[in-house]
Amino acid sequence: MIRFENVTKTYPKSTRPAVDGISLEIGRGEFVFVVGTSGSGKSTMLQLIMKEQDATGGRLSVAGRELDRLPDRKVPSLRRQIGCVFQDFRLLPNKTVHQNVAYALQVLGAPRSRIRSTVPEVLDLVGLAGMEKRFPHQLSGGEQQRVAIARAFVNRPPILLADEPTGNLDPGISLEIVQLLDRINRTGTTVVMATHDFATVDAMRKRVIRLDNGVLVGDVEAGEYTTGSIPRIELDDRPIPTRAPEPAVADGYDDGAPTGAGSAAEADPAAHVDDEAPDGERQAAAQGSGR
Ligand SMILES: Nc1ncnc2c1ncn2[C@@H]1O[C@H](COP(=O)(O)OP(=O)(O)OP(=O)(O)O)[C@@H](O)[C@H]1O
Ligand SMILES: [Mg+2]
Questions:
Q1: Is residue 282 part of a domain?
Q2: Does residue 228 lie in a domain region?
Q3: Per-residue confidence of the chain (291 residues) as pLDDT tens digits?
Q4: How does this chain sit within the bilayer (predicted)?
C-alpha cells in the first residue's frame, strides 16, 4: 500500500535531511505507529505520503501510484485515497458536526442522497450520534477529534494518516481515540499514526516504526514505544531554598553549606547521577520525551 525506497527529503535551505534514506513497506490493512523525538521527521514522512511534500531522493509509491512521477492533475485522486487527522482537529468552526463531515463528501461531488445516508452512519461509528447539530466549540477535544476522524473516514479511504491525533487530549481520551482508529483499521483501512504518546503505543501492541534525525532506527512488530529508549524524567529532589541567603554573606553567595532541610548530598547535583542506570536509560533521560 505504501512503499518507501531510500526516500530522502531535504527542505530548501536546510543542511540536513528531515527524512534520510528511508526504506520500508506498509501493507494493506496494517496499523503502524511512527515514533521519534520532536524533529525526527514523523510529520515529514506523513506529508510525503500525501504528497504535501515531494521527496528529494528515492522512490515512494502510495496506493499503486509512483509519487515522483505523479502529475499534479492526479494529486486530487491520490488524496481521495487518504484520510488525514491532525493534532489540532482542523474543523470548520462555523459548520455543525453534520456539516463538517458532509463537506468532505460535497467537495468530492457526492449526491445529496448519499450524503444524507452516509453522514449519520459514520457519526454513529465514531460515537457521536445525537450531536449532529452542535458546533465544534460546543464539543470537548475528544469529541472534536471524533468529528475529524469521521470526516477523514466518511469517504472510506484505503489509507488514514494521523499526525499526533491525541496530542491535545488527556490519556484516557487518547486511548479511546486510538481504539477508534483501531476499529477503522479493522474495516481494512491502513492506518499510519505519528505520535509521542508512549502509553498508547505500549497499550496497542502494533507495529512501531522509529525515526531518529530522519533515519529509520527501528521497525518492530507488536512493539512498544519503550523499546530502545523510554522517555524518563530524572526527578530533581533537591530542596528549593525557602528563604534568601543570610545577609551576613556580603557578596550574596553562600559558602556552599546547605540552606534548607536537605543534606549536603542532596545539594550536590553530582549526587543525582544514577550510576546504576543502563546506558540506554541514561541516554533517554538526557534526550527527554521531546515534549
Ligand atoms: N516546512 C519545513 N521547512 C523547513 N524545514 C522543515 C519543515 N518542516 C519540518 N522541517 C524540519 O524537518 C525536520 C523534521 O521535522 P518534522 O516536523 O517532520 O518532525 P516531527 O518528528 O514531526 O516533529 P514533532 O514531533 O515536533 O512534530 C525538523 O528539523 C524540522 O525543523
Ligand atoms: Mg510532527
A1: no
A2: no
A3: 999 999 999 999 999 999 999 999 999 999 999 999 999 999 999 999 999 999 999 999 999 999 999 999 999 999 999 999 999 999 999 999 999 999 999 998 999 999 999 999 999 999 999 999 999 999 999 999 999 999 999 999 999 999 999 999 999 999 999 999 999 999 999 999 999 988 899 989 999 999 999 999 999 998 777 654 555 566 777 778 777 666 655 554 444 444 444 444 444 444 444 444 444 444 444 444 333
A4: Peripheral membrane protein
User: If you take atom 26 of ligand 1, which residue's CA is the nearest one?
Assistant: 38
What's the domain count of the chain?
A: 1
Residue 48 makes CB contacts below 8 A (sequence gap 6+) with: 7, 9, 19, 54, 55, 60, 67
Nearest one of 7, 15, 13 to 49, comparing CA atoms: 7
What distance in Å separates the CA atoms of residue 199 and residue 89, rounded to the nearest whole number?
A: 21
For ligand 2, the distance from its centroid to the CA atom of residue 268, given in whole angstroms, is 37
Which CATH number covers residue 183? 3.40.50.300
Quote the CA–CA distance of 142 and 145 in Å, as a whole number: 5
CA distance 53 to 35: 19
267 domain residue, yes or no = no
- CA distances 261 to 117, 211, 264, 271, Å, are 68, 44, 10, 16
pTM, whole model, 2 decimals?
Answer: 0.80
In ligand 1, the atom with minimum distance to the C-alpha of 196 is 25
Helices 141-153 and 112-125 meet at what angle, rounded to 10? Answer: 130
Ligand 1 pocket: which of 44, 53, 168, 211 to mutate (most atoms <8 Å of CB)?
44
Does residue 72 lie within any of the structural domains?
yes
Q: Three cell numbers at 14?
A: 536546510
The domain of 175 spans 2-220
What are 45's three cell numbers? 514522512
